[in-house]
Amino acid sequence: MAYDRLGEDRERDRGVSNHEQVIQPGTDEELMVHGYRYSCCKAAIFYLLTILTLGMFYLVSYWKPEWRVYFMRRECSLSEADSLILKDADGQLHVVKVEVDDVEPGFPSQYVISLHVHDASSNVHNGPSDATHLSQPIYKVVRFFLFQHIKYIWTPEKMSFTRLYGYDVNTPISSLLNDFRGFTVREQMHRQKLYGLNVISVEVKSYGYLLVTEILNPFYVFQIASITLWSFDNYYLYATCIFIVSCLSVIISLLETRKQSQSLHDMVEASNTNIASVLRATPQGPDKVEIGTRELVPGDVLVIPRAGCTMPCDAVLISGNAIVNESMLTGESVPVTKIPVTVSEENEIYSPEKHKRHTLFCGTSVIQTRYYGSAQVRAVVVQTGFSTAKGELVRSILYPRPLDFKFYKDAMKFIIFLFCIASIGMSYSVYIYILHEEGFLVTLIRTLDIVTIVVPPALPAAMTVGTYYAQSRLKKQGIFCISPPRINVAGKTKLVCFDKTGTLTEDGLEVWGVVEVKDNLMGTPVMNVSSIHYTSHLIAAMATCHSLTFLNGNLTGDPLDVKMFEATEWSLEEPSQGSSNYDQVAPTVVKPCNREMYVDPPDITNIVETPFQVPYEIGILRQFPFSSSSQRMSVMVRKLGEQHMDLYVKGAPEIIQSLCKPESIPDGLGPILTHFTVQGFRVIALAYRTLHMKLSWHEAQKISRDQVEQDLTFVGLLILQNMLKPETSAVIHQLQQANIRTLMVTGDNILTAISVARDCGMVGTTHQVLVAKVTPPISDLPPSLVFEPADTSDIMIHSTTQDLTSVSITVDSNIPKYHLAVSGRAWALIYQYFPDLLPRIITRGTVFARMSPDQKAQLVEELQTINYIVAMCGDGANDCGALKTAHVGISLSEAEASVAAPFTSRTNNIKCVPQVVCEGRCALTTNFSVFKYMALYSIIQFVSVLILYSAYTNLSDPQFLYIDLFIVTVVAIFMGYTGPSLELVAEKPLGNLLGAVNMFSVLSQIFLVILFQVIAYFYLLQQPWFEPNKKPDDKEPDNVVSWETATIFYASSFQYLALCVAYSPGQPFRKPLITNVWLTVSLIILTVTTLVMLLCPWPWLMNLMNMKYASDSYLMFRIALLLFVATHFVISVSTEYFIASSRALKKCFQWVTCKRMPKNKYKIVLREMDEDPNWPPVGTPVYSYQRT
């Protein structure tokens, strides 16, 4: 049947062609879509070419699916396309098929296409007549395609494909609260048809499918062609052995692929649950039913069990609380409390990132839920399947983004270079065989044989040897990597960003003391917090302003909250079901625990049936959770016996000050705050507000935090001590010694961050720190930027109500080294008004404080734009964006794999950073070495064969086997086994395979290889006893048992071993060669075996090798050959170790190429700053006049 789409005839008549479209432009998931439709004529030509080329044309189209689309289909509008070519944000091409599904009435109408069915043979292109439209039935269908497990659906109204989202995009919170009461069974079926099953499954392919896929790999196709070619050339033994080795390789590859696939499948399935409780709409009202989790769809109302569960989807809490372990998602092992969305947020648009405190993410573990009275803990499903948080993790493993790393591009260029060499060799081979008057078949076979020699099929695999070993070693050290190519990138790391709390410093904070406000003056620091009177607002704020809960009898929550509450020596009680003291809704009650406290009720006349005294208890009625963007949290509480509620707030001092009444800001706050922060203490400000007496509980649940978090009264400071981890200073020093820049990106106070930076060594004791101060535009005044010294020795502090510090500047100009410190607020203004100065600021910036998660990621991106290879190390909680954005993201987590970063370290300190860098440098050096060795192996054999072709001979079967299997394969495998150097040095490994130094290394070794093989050959020709090999008769095979063959075999065998030593560098990036026991033993055995064949040949061995020998003759000739190869060894190793690796050679190339300016942008920026006498603008503002 053929389809005619209603409403599309006009578009066709006007000649409108929607052949291409961009989906999600400007994002990481951008797709350029091109539409194609099957063409009978083009398909016939394609199959004809396939037959004429004996299937090769089809095979090439298998490797390049987009070519098959070009050959078999024609361009068409997207509305008619049956196949699409997708170009992703990385420039890679993919082919997908457009699916068409029938739908029933009631299916979401915005995606439905109405179709008429008519005879396909009618060849009517402009659509059937109106009479035909009226007489033929209408079919309802939807069109879509799947790309990397994400569904893109056709929207007829927009005439385009769009990504299918759930309710996680453009959904008002008011809709989540009011519009979802449970679907009917029919509604659920329609949505399941739209969204598919809620399944995150990694398919484990059958062995048969994997076998066919593996065999059709270009590597094995090349091997099959090579084996066939060798068989035609009578190399049956060699061809048979290579065939057996290839079969073993296929089997091992199949088992490894299947094992990895099964492992990922098991990891995904292990956390899956089978049954979920949801609400179903019935005529009698919502009914709770149990269904399989596969049947969940966006919009379902999920009932979370009290005992917890593993979340099968992403869902938004609309009632009740949940305690969740999100280590799989964020790497943060501390359970977090999730609270429901409220009516105060109903005007906001739901965002999984912004409202993550309300969101239960798929794959995370709900440890416990809490509900009150007869209510249930309910959540609205917003996303299912691979679109969930867990699905994104699995997709990132299945479809890792390609790295824009120069090594891989250069490797492909080098392979093309080898093809060019092969073409030269083929031309020479044709010339030789024409000169020798050989037949066409022999000439063809020998010429094609050159290709199998010059371009070894194992070359691409050799590029990953070092990475594989490095990944294995990292795993043994408790560092897991889900993106192995990142290991190579880690070897070029130039800068490391560190989070502070939990990364540089201990997770746990110790309460040092408090400073309470009395009579509008800052009091003296109190070390014993519990000694303060229990009715103090400061104590009440510390006891209530948190999100702690009991889990298995233990107080659980943010470590800061735990220490703060424990310092009060109060107790926390969570009411059981049926408790009525707090309207059945108070999540927790806090009270002094050292003895029963009773207080008089404030107004006995307003309280019914209240005794003369009531217990001093505070019930927490509502929480406004902490967020990195607001830098504060607050709670609404009510003391037992009182009719009004209080609000307690804690957060960053500068934020709390801005929310307080100016008259409540005490005198002397500025100096005290600076006194503690410059010593590295973490300072939290506390404030309160008495709320209106008429505010009811229901109104309190609806009110927004902005309405209550104002006109606060400042009550004091909480001083916490955050100690450096023991390993921090040593690691920072180690990185700095290796010329790897370190900086801190934290959400803490800027002075505290600067103090920690000094303590850990990021900022030297004699170095100056300049703080960026940015003033936004005011009236006619443009925005300004100025830097002020941060050290107390350089500033004099005066307290004001609005500004913490005013500065008198006395900059020591004799200190050449300075660091810039930037706050999150200053960063935002610099980013907006001073983008031209941003490169200078990030090049000299060391401390970035009060940075939000988005600003952290933004900083990493800016560092990357000036050519830094950036590593980011954090605990995963607020660093997810930066960890993903960085070239090398390392999450400190107990989980084996985290969505937060490509590297996950179980060791909870930053020692993992130098370990990853060391392994990266070792892997990069190893990959370069193995790649160059494999390339030289090809050249050696290429030269050997061409010389022997000239002498009417070639290497024998056993000789090829000895070289390829026993020398090259063994050496290539064990070369990567050398471990990394334990010391980080300032020198960095080369990252440019086609750079001048590497090309000198390769070309010089090629020259030496050719030189000594030619010398050995011509030395043989000069021997008086030598009789040249003669041209065989037409029907006779080549005489491979000849002195020409033996001489070239000896010379080339020793060259392979010499180059292994030359290309096995030790220090500074790897351990010495001798520590690689497997390689050392292999080299000794192979060297001894080859020496035996040269100096004292055993008859049985020489016969086995098809080698010409004379046990008692020509000893001086053999000794001379040994001297030749020994000389080659010395010169080859010396050239690599003392010339190619020397700085003098690099400087020489720079002089020859007239390189005067550095290539990296950050080095250019540093030079510009050094040459600018007015930078940095200390004390003198810089103004921005650009329009924003």
UniProtKB/TrEMBL annotation:
Transmembrane region(s): 44-63, 235-255, 414-434, 934-953, 959-978, 990-1020, 1073-1095, 1115-1139
Localization terms from the record: Cytoplasmic vesicle, Autophagosome membrane; Endosome, Multivesicular body membrane; Late endosome membrane; Lysosome membrane
Domain of life from the UniProt record: Eukaryota
GO molecular function: ATP binding; ATP hydrolysis activity; ATPase-coupled monoatomic cation transmembrane transporter activity; metal ion binding; P-type ion transporter activity; polyamine transmembrane transporter activity
Domain called P5B-type ATPase N-terminal: residue spans: 28-154
Entry keywords, A to Z: ATP-binding, Cytoplasmic vesicle, Endosome, Lysosome, Magnesium, Membrane, Metal-binding, Nucleotide-binding, Phosphoprotein, Translocase, Transmembrane, Transmembrane helix, Transport
Predominant localisation class: membrane
GO biological process: autophagosome-lysosome fusion; cellular response to oxidative stress; intracellular calcium ion homeostasis; intracellular zinc ion homeostasis; positive regulation of exosomal secretion; protein localization to lysosome; regulation of autophagosome size; regulation of lysosomal protein catabolic process
UniProt topology in membrane: Multi-pass membrane protein
InterPro entries: ATPase_P-typ_cyto_dom_N (IPR023299), ATPase_P-typ_P_site (IPR018303), ATPase_P-typ_TM_dom_sf (IPR023298), ATPase_P-typ_transduc_dom_A_sf (IPR008250), ATPase_P-type_domA (IPR059000), HAD-like_sf (IPR036412), HAD_sf (IPR023214), P-type_TPase_V (IPR006544)
Pfam families, alphabetized: Cation_ATPase, E1-E2_ATPase, P5-ATPase
Function, in words: ATPase which acts as a lysosomal polyamine exporter with high affinity for spermine. Also stimulates cellular uptake of polyamines and protects against polyamine toxicity. Plays a role in intracellular cation homeostasis and the maintenance of neuronal integrity. Contributes to cellular zinc homeostasis. Confers cellular protection against Mn(2+) and Zn(2+) toxicity and mitochondrial stress. Required for proper lysosomal and mitochondrial maintenance. Regulates the autophagy-lysosome pathway through the control of SYT11 expression at both transcriptional and post-translational levels.
Record-linked NCBIfam families: ATPase_P-type (TIGR01494), P-ATPase-V (TIGR01657)
Protein name per Swiss-Prot or TrEMBL: Polyamine-transporting ATPase 13A2
Organism: Cherax quadricarinatus (Australian red claw crayfish)
